[in-house]
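Reviewers asked in the last cycle whether our approach scales beyond single polypeptides. To address this, we selected a multi-component target totalling 430 residues and predicted its structure end to end. The input consisted of the following lines:
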Amino acid sequence: MSPATSRPTAAAALAGVLRTQVLDGHLAPGTPLREEALATEHGLSRHTVRSALQQLAGERLAEAAPFRGVRVASLDDDAVRSLQDLRRAVESEAVRLLVARHGRAWPEAVTDVLAEHLASLERSAGGEGDRLAVLSDHAAFHHALVAAAGSARLTEVSAGLSAEVRLFTAHLRLHLEPAGLVAEHRAYLDDVRLRGPAAVHEHLAASQEALLTGR
Amino acid sequence: MSPATSRPTAAAALAGVLRTQVLDGHLAPGTPLREEALATEHGLSRHTVRSALQQLAGERLAEAAPFRGVRVASLDDDAVRSLQDLRRAVESEAVRLLVARHGRAWPEAVTDVLAEHLASLERSAGGEGDRLAVLSDHAAFHHALVAAAGSARLTEVSAGLSAEVRLFTAHLRLHLEPAGLVAEHRAYLDDVRLRGPAAVHEHLAASQEALLTGR
DNA sequence: CGACCCGGCATTGTGTAACAATCTGGCCGT
DNA sequence: ACGGCCAGATTGTTACACAATGCCGGGTCG
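The resulting structure, written as structure tokens, was:
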């Protein structure tokens, strides 16, 4: 999903740039995405803009209401809890599959990718305060963990959930502490291999606490 | 989602009728949904038809490929396995929540709805061979089980999954035995209260077997 | 003073017509 | 038989127009 532009169709390309804008926190939750404005701004017709917005809404990065337009998605407390329910379902099932398949000794191919994600997260956390990179790496780590289970549908849902988390965390009032985040996830990766789904439950419970209090 | 028509917008209404057509098996998987044809058939413009098709594709009841149009969704063996992974994730987490909250004695409000779904399933199975009603009731039962957990996102994903299962089962070569289906799900409801997620695993494993061999 | 109604403006939903971009299937020559 | 190529079919996109709905403010009435 990296190249936000240069997609086969103009609508998909626009969806790409809007997606990165949203995920980078350049648009606050609740911000209306006006068709006319986007059309003139990007030199497209309203129809293509509408198509792109419908895509975004489908990914839950925006909310569409009939005759009231599309806005950047925003989550209230209940939505966050419910989101965490789904994250728990997906991630714990992925981990369960991994443990069922490999026991505690996961293949190097798997642990290497995950370790690389952690390293990248640590670099971002260590560098000058690039909060966005930290959040992106954090989301990518969780997504990679699920992807390691090798189930296309689990992976796809996880991609969407990671994006939602990234969007939400980008607008937290109390920012997550990068150093703490790195430490937690290093421990998490070890823990999850040893204890499986139970570790997922604990991690996401702590995560939920942080998300709800820091908003 | 019952009233397929009479939605605020024409696009949503068309999406509704297409959805019921697809779910009732009136359109074989792989069938192309041509914009022009649908436009003239329903007296709409191509734009609104496109919007409706994009909705359907978002629900995974259809597949869209750039410049190649939208077709009724079809699942190969890998897609079925992957779909079952996700069903397992969602349904077992829902059951885990239910058991964590209520133990083995679920509230009457919950057991009543589920029992009513089973009763409806049994009626459909007992009646003259209305295969579609059986499949619809079957999907509705699983959806209701997840919905009982009270998590909006789990419920929503489950709705989509149930629809996909309904679509897939509608086109099975070897049809599911209605009587067996009823018995299995009666036992399942009891089992899931006693043993929780483990019962979900077993049920969906058996289900997967049936789906893969019966296609 | 507040609640309500009403009207105008902004915005979205839909239609028509046309053209460009891409895919598809069949014909052709080698 | 094989690949290339052309013509038709289909989708992607645009421009313009109008209808339908939501939003916001002023005015009126209690």
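Chain B has nine helices and three strands. We regard this as preliminary and will revisit it once experimental data from Aim 1 are available.
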